[in-house]
Specification:
231 residues, alpha/beta, Rossmann fold, 41% helix, globular
């Protein structure tokens, strides 16, 4: 039976880079994939761009990435840098989880050097609770969420320990081409995003004897490695 996998990122690029290989694998296997960007990351606009223009561009790029891997994209209206853990944001995301009937949710680890990432973690954790609780009345029925895992992100390293290991060798090439739709993957002057996540997938893959792998952690993290095939 096909599942719905939802990935939640603080900014456009977060979920696509950290969860994209696994999302592409699920899409290739026939599952529904939904990527929710809580902000468009518009305040990372390069020189010569307005934040409004960069927001529109990032939103378009997120849609292109999703189409490339066979998924869907949702970019919320919250301004970049102004993401807060409020009940309003939690319920907005919870209702999306119910609308899409999410079976699994991928999201940020709890500790980060970026405040938006930490807020995104708390928002998503509480949204999962509200989305899946049968006695919490909302317009739509509860989502059948059975797994929720935190992605490995270079900005979210404090305390992160890989627990779930996924072989994503079959979907790596699709992800690599799709992620080039995002401006920051190859054009950021502050960090080599594509190079980093490609190298990380090779290093993680070597640990479990495959070409490419991606890792996730539960919350709280457990000091044990576990390899899975799919969510």
């Amino acid at each position: 039976m096909a599942k719905t996998i939802m990935a939640v990122g603080a900014h456009t690029g977060d979920a696509q880079l950290t969860c994209g290989m696994l999302l592409a694998k699920h899409a290739m296997r026939g599952d529904r994939v939904v990527i929710v960007d809580l902000t468009a990351g518009e305040r990372g606009a390069p020189k010569g761009w307005t934040t409004a223009d960069f927001r529109a561009y990032n939103t378009e790029c997120a849609a292109k990435f999703a189409r490339r891997i066979g998924g869907e994209s949702v970019v919320l209206d919250t301004p970049d840098g102004e993401l807060y853990d409020t009940k309003e944001n939690e319920l907005l995301l919870a209702d999306l989880m119910r609308e899409y009937r999410a079976d699994a949710v991928l999201y940020h680890w709890k500790n980060s050097l970026h405040k938006d990432h930490e807020a995104a973690h708390r928002i998503t954790e509480n949204a999962i609770f509200f989305a899946s609780l049968p006695t919490f009345e909302r317009p739509l029925p509860p989502a059948p969420i059975s797994r929720f895992l935190c992605a490995e992100n270079w900005e979210d390293e404090p305390g992160f320990e890989p627990y779930y290991w996924f072989d994503v060798s079959e979907s790596f090439a699709l992800w690599k081409e799709a992620v080039k739709e995002l401006w920051l993957s190859e054009h950021s002057t502050s960090f080599k995003y594509l190079r980093y996540y490609e190298a990380l997938s090779v290093a993680r893959g070597a640990r479990i004897g495959v070409e490419h792998a991606t890792c996730f952690a539960p919350n709280p993290a457990a000091a044990k490695r576990q390899r899975l095939d799919l969510l």
